[in-house]
Protein 1
Amino acid sequence: MAQVKIYGSVQSRAARALWCARECGIEFEHLGTDSKALKADPEFARINPNGKVPAMVDGDVTLFESMAINLYLAHKYGKSLWPTTIGDEARTYQWSFWGMTEVEKPLLTIVIDTFMTPADKKNPKAVEDAKTALQSPLSVLNQALKGKSYLLGDTFTIADLNLAAIMAWAKLVKLDMTGNSDVANWLDRCLSRPAFRGK
């Protein structure tokens, strides 16, 4: 039986942890694809008292929050994913947290309105506001990727995985990347990896 257990459906932020585990090449057990059942499970409440996914168990280590899970897995198991200098470690944290604070909320606003909101409750202004809000971070990211294949240089790392896992929603909603071709090309490189596609 696999020591690492990852809880949450592939339609949730657990997809990020599943991608990371596949990149690390580890055996893992994917559990709890039914979020409602998990919330009612007292065993799961001991793993994540917030009652949300993803969550992870690795022996006596339990974690929640997708970025924390991924940083842990990459550091412990993903030798090629983990940066080799302390400066790049700091940049890994920077880009992981930046994705959560600058990119995730506006992208999620568009995803929810596009795919989960009934036609009579859609909010085109909120979507346009979210698209406008994304222009500045996209420009920042585009500039950071100039002359590089990946965030830390020529090698795909956990920094790329964590940010690309958020930015994947941009593909889902067909976000216009005009003027940000370095971002578009980087995202294509990241999302073309077999481990992202579940292989």
Note: The CA atoms of residues 145 and 151 lie 6 Å apart.
Protein 2
Amino acid sequence: MESNTVHWASRRYLKARYEELRRGYRQLPNDGRQADGYHYTTEAKQIFPRYNVVAAILVEVERLDPDHLPGIDVLTHALLAAPEAANSPFTTPRQDEVEAGAIADERRLFVANVRRWVAQPDLDIDPLPYRRVLTPAESSAWRTSLQRRWGVRNGWWHPLLSTSVPHDVLVLTGESMWEDDGVDQVRRVLWELGRRRVVEVSEYGADYLLDAAIMAPRYAGAEALWSDERHDWIAYASHEGTVAFGGALSTGLATSWPEVHSWRWPGWHEFGHLERP
């Protein structure tokens, strides 16, 4: 049994399980709320704690470096310990009996699956792209370097800084990364630059080192910044519906993406802002 195989199985299962539970929750009437619009229904409390703890378990699993996994016995021990170590702001508040039971059950389910995978000598799992949670020291170092190199302030970059947007910074609307082929264009430029892995630093939650092939510079509930070890490009997705690019990535997108100008951010005046935050 290869360690990579079980690690891929764990990541695939957790990603699929999260999406399955999220779909189930979206099908609940009234967004899972009781008639008062405030309290959750019992059915909702049997679902949302599960996807929250699944997300937390995935973070623990992805702390392991796919390039340097331990032997299968050590890896199995780490995976079996991951559910109990997995916590987040969404799993630690006081829960009632239904929520606590759902979380405990989801932890047990992952453990059971790990034992099942390890017991299958012919387990065959398709590989997954590289993604690893950064250590606290790595995250801190990256935040410092982004501040020094690109002027990032408190996790913000252009156009949310009080200074004017430099002429070589490309600011697009956030929709550009959700519609058309914006994300593919970003990945293509990075590929042509020979960049295979990027760092993703988020407003909250885990920060990652990941394959550029799965980089998605979008605002999905948390602001985020992207760069790589050469520090010659940056991307920033903001809560104000913008995504900004600097350095080699800005140049590459401006020169090789024919539709890029149709996605240019029109500026604060279009959104009724009198001044930038």
Note: The CA atoms of residues 177 and 183 lie 5 Å apart.
Protein 3
Amino acid sequence: MAVPKPRTRIQEKNRARVLEAALEVFSRHGFRGATLDEIAREAGLSKPNLLYYFASKEEIHVTLLEGLVDTWLDPLRALDADGDPQAELLAYVRRKLQMSRDLPRESRLFAQEIVQGAPRMKDGLSTDLKALVDEKAEVLRGWSSAGKLAPVDPHHLIFSIWSLTQHYADFDVQVRAVLGEGREPIDEAEVFLEALFRRVLAP
């Protein structure tokens, strides 16, 4: 089997341009609404040039999702079983809010894929994601059993953290419309969610 040649610096730069453009287009229009022509325009490349780097719209989308899964799991991986339970969980909430602030397009891309039934990442959800969530759920159960954490369902606690943090990326326009000018949603959310989870988690 032939070993693929390493990409040149220009090839790497152009692939990165395509992926950045595709992230913008997919997060705006979803997979079905996005076109290769629009991605090429956003990247400042011709469509034939784009197709030199990626064979199809689906290949671009899958490449983005594969990179995103690791990014999405990293904050949960950082939950330390040997740490203070409340401190660890509140740090997880803050990390997820920070991702909503810094990576709103990625959050919308992920949400759109899930809403559509995860056709391009279902295997990863049932393996990598499930395994990690199950592992951390056992940590939460252990903390509850030891009296260090309130007796809560660990899976639904994790789901609630996801929904209460990712909401600020996926529904940013709605949140800002309700709050009005001059307010920073994620700064306010951090204060509110810390107070909320302290009460929920207190043993």
Note: The mean pLDDT is 91.
Protein 4
Amino acid sequence: MSKGSAKQGQLRIIGGEWRSRKVSFIDAEGLRPTPDRVRETLFNWLAPYIEGAAVLDLFAGSGALSLEALSRGAVSATILDINHQVISNLKSQLQILNCQRATLINQSALLFLQKQATKQFDVVFLDPPFRKDMLQQACQLLADNGWLANKAWVYTESEIMPSQLLMPTNWQLYREKKAGQVYYSLWLSQ
């Protein structure tokens, strides 16, 4: 697909500094932007923890989660996606928002997590492609390689009920809900 032929979608930032601002995202295969209603619930759960947090968004897609976190006062966001067009578009959106608190990385999340952490994160967003067995691998790598700060929050989206996921033993399920066919949950790592 050529750079000019990617179809665009839009999402609205719900709260914080950029409240009600619309940002564009490309219509890439498998990209499922987290709906407004789900983002609102998630950020209500995270409200006491997001300001000043270092955020890691491992399968960024539209960037909705990391942009919302930055708008609500996250100190930094490290944003990964394997799709070059997704990263290029997010770079443009961050420039429009005049945001310099984000680091964009065009790499596989699983490859990124395989190395020992050089930084620890307070909040992690995990919304990998479904039916590719990536979620549990990513969670284990986060735990094993030191990516999580003490008492970090990990948000997951999956097609499987959270109680059926094999998560690291020191993670506690804090909240869970379902929207359509997607289960979303928030975990606290101890």
Note: Residues 3-189 form a domain with the Rossmann fold fold (CATH 3.40.50.150).
